[in-house]
Design brief:
The complex is a heterodimer of chains A (279) and B (267). By secondary structure, chain A is an alpha/beta fold. Helices cover 38% and strands 23% of the residues of chain A. Chain A has two domains: 235 residues, P-loop containing nucleotide triphosphate hydrolases (Rossmann fold, 3-Layer(aba) Sandwich); 37 residues, no CATH class. In chain A, the strands form two sheets. Chain A has a six-stranded mixed sheet with strand order 6-7-8-3-9-10, sandwiched between helices. Chain B is globular, with a radius of gyration of 20 Å. Chain B is α/β, with parallel strands linked by helices. The N and C termini of chain B lie far apart (50 Å). In chain B, strands 6-7-8-3-9-10 form a six-stranded mixed sheet, with helices on both faces. The longest helix of chain B has 14 residues. Chain B has a single domain, classed as Rossmann fold (3-Layer(aba) Sandwich). The relative contact order of chain B is 0.15. In chain B, β7, α6 and β8 form a beta-alpha-beta unit. Bound molecules: adenosine-5'-diphosphate (ADP) (2 copies) and magnesium ion (2 copies). One magnesium ion binds next to α1 of chain A.
């Protein structure tokens, strides 16, 4: 069982003069039950690639394989519903897409749409709220009275209520303050560690990637140009702005103090120095 | 350059800007920080006259902001909004940049060159004929930046204007903004605490109230207060605090290179 993207290209407005090749022969496999970050400059095709994973877009050529689904240019619309249930996609600025009056109704929309009974729906809503850390007091509140971070949680809960195995989020921390970003990361980490979700995130925050993620995919101009586990990816990478902790480790190295690749927080770095001193 | 005197404002009954006073210095780089919902964007809207305060006064370059002089205010101040949608006037990138130039009465024959120069500065030269609404979020922010930078406003407000950019883009744009800073007033609304280290002046907002104000030195001398406010500390201060806990001989005013010196000497 796997997620793989084989020779996928995608062209926007292919029938017109403005046609634009947003994905160019992408080949990549994503490991399940991990947290994978997709990074790269704005406009390099991250959002376009994510939208292929739940068939919001179909490849112009090539195929997307998710377990036993194969998505190609010719896939028929009615065959896609199970794929969309398996792969939940949380849009960028998802909070702007809340439209029901109350938190309950908004989260319930998905399960109802997939034919759940009222009773099943209520259970799904409660479970989803718990997963995103919204307590019972929110259930009948109006979405419009919530903060940006809270709204984003409601939007994620709406997707989780469909019980996806794979959760994809497009820049889930964009616009959140640092505190809100850390809470978002802890939420995702919990979904991975305790609920067996596969998490795929588009992000620009390399510090968060380094601290919380397992794997990294780097894109550039419609192509995947690197893929690795997070420790090795950042250790000495000329192609990206390095996380602050790595920059700190490099300053130490210049002065002759080598820190292992496993230390990825300030605390861990200082602990290594301290242990060296004792030894 | 921009002065608030006991300003109150709310969208509904409750005030979200609560008796705020401050004075943003002319031709300096000022950062405004605070959690989501603390009122930063509202302050920007009040400065631009997009909302009217309930009480108190706002002055731009000595002129009180009110409905009769919005043209003057908006000529003096440019803004890049937080949400990159809905800030485009034209249907192509080049026309959007041209619009600012027309307002600044730049002769037609010089326009194309200037448009290309600024599109290149923000890395959007390949997209001149594209519809800005169809670009990705970060690309929209770049176009919005070019359209404001190309103008001749005395002050520019950047409301989380690089929030959707990749780190390389952020560095490029911050570099661009720094180049400007010599002859313009820059107001940067930001969550990036590293950026504060290079500011001339800092205003910290919390729930519609100014809770800290001053030069970066003043702001970062009160670490306890910053922690109470649950604001993230700049990286170097995070290292210093952690190093103190581990009994390394460091102090709060050190630069990262100095901290590294101390750490290396101990090994
Ligand atoms: N709906 C669209 N129509 C035309 N071009 C688009 C559309 N959406 C994205 N593009 C273009 O495709 C490229 C990739 O965009 P996107 O996947 O949004 O990038 P990213 O998410 O990495 O910033 C960009 O050059 C963008 O301008
Ligand atoms: N258009 C609006 N209508 C009603 N309330 C709003 C509107 N815009 C902002 N608010 C509220 O005003 C407060 C301050 O918001 P804002 O100035 O956007 O904060 P910040 O930019 O610091 O995140 C928040 O509580 C927010 O929910
Ligand atoms: Mg995107
Ligand atoms: Mg704001």
């Amino acid at each position: 069982m796997s997620i793989s993207i084989n020779h996928v290209s995608y062209v926007y407005d292919s029938e017109t003069e403005l046609k634009w090749k947003a994905l160019d022969d992408i080949n990549v496999a994503i490991t399940k039950f991990k947290m994978t970050a997709i990074i790269g400059k704005t406009g390099c095709g991250k959002t376009t690639l994510m939208q292929h994973l739940n068939a919001l877009l179909k490849p112009t050529s090539g195929e997307v394989i998710i377990d036993d689904f194969v998505l190609t240019k010719t896939s028929k619309h009615h065959t896609l519903k199970p794929l969309r249930k398996k792969v939940g996609l949380v849009f960028q600025f998802s909070e702007s897409q809340l439209f029901e009056e109350t938190v309950f109704k908004d989260i319930a929309f998905g399960p109802k749409n997939y034919g759940a009974t009222d009773e099943e729906t209520a259970i799904k809503v409660h479970q989803a709220m718990q997963l995103v850390g919204l307590d019972e007091s929110y259930i009948h509140r109006s979405c419009f009275q919530l903060s940006g971070g809270e709204k984003r949680r409601v939007a994620i809960a709406g997707i989780l209520a469909l019980d996806p195995e794979i959760l994809i989020l497009d820049e889930p921390t964009a616009g959140l303050d640092p505190q809100g970003s850390i809470e978002m990361m802890q939420l995702l980490l919990n979904l991975k560690n305790h609920h067996n979700k596969t998490i795929i995130v588009v992000t620009h925050d390399n510090d968060l990637v380094y601290t919380y993620f397992d794997d990294v995919i780097l894109m550039d101009q419609g192509k995947v140009i690197a893929q690795n586990n997070v420790l090795d990816f950042f250790e000495d990478n000329q192609a990206v702005v390095l996380p602050q902790v790595i920059q700190f480790k490099q300053l130490l190295l210049k002065k002759g103090v080598h820190i292992s690749k496993y230390a990825r927080t300030i605390k861990e770095v200082l602990e290594e120095i301290k242990n060296d001193r004792i030894r | 350059m921009i002065k608030f005197e006991n300003v109150r404002f709310g969208y509904h009954e409750t005030d979200v800007i609560n008796n705020v006073s401050f004075n943003i210095p002319k031709n300096k780089y000022t950062c405004i920080v605070g959690h989501n919902g603390s009122g930063k964007s509202t302050i920007a809207k009040l400065i631009m006259g997009l909302e009217n305060c309930r009480s108190g006064k706002i002055f731009v370059d000595g002129i009180e902001v009110n409905d009769s002089n919005l043209d003057v205010i908006r000529e003096k101040i440019g803004i890049v909004f937080q949400n990159p949608d809905n800030q485009f006037i034209a249907t192509t990138v080049e026309d959007d940049i041209a619009f600012t130039l027309e307002n600044a009465c730049v002769p037609q024959h010089q326009m194309q060159k200037i448009i290309e120069e600024y599109a290149t500065k923000v890395g959007m030269q390949q997209y001149l004929k594209h519809d800005p609404e169809k670009l990705s979020g970060g690309q929209k922010q770049r176009v919005a930046l070019a359209s404001v930078l190309v103008g001749s406003s005395e002050a520019i407000i950047f409301d989380e204007a690089t929030s959707m950019l990749d780190p390389e883009g952020k560095q490029e744009i911050n570099q661009l903004i720094t180049e400007l800073k010599h002859n313009r007033t820059i107001i940067s609304i930001t969550h990036d605490m590293e950026e504060l280290l290079n500011a001339d002046y800092v205003i910290v907002l919390e729930k519609g109230v100014v809770v800290m104000e001053g030069t970066p030195d003043v702001i970062f001398s009160d670490i306890e207060k910053l922690q109470q406010l649950r604001l993230r500390l700049p990286f170097v201060l995070q290292v210093i605090l952690e190093a103190k806990l581990k009994n390394f001989n460091v102090n709060n005013t050190m630069r990262i290179e100095e901290v590294v010196e101390v750490l290396c000497r101990s090994v």
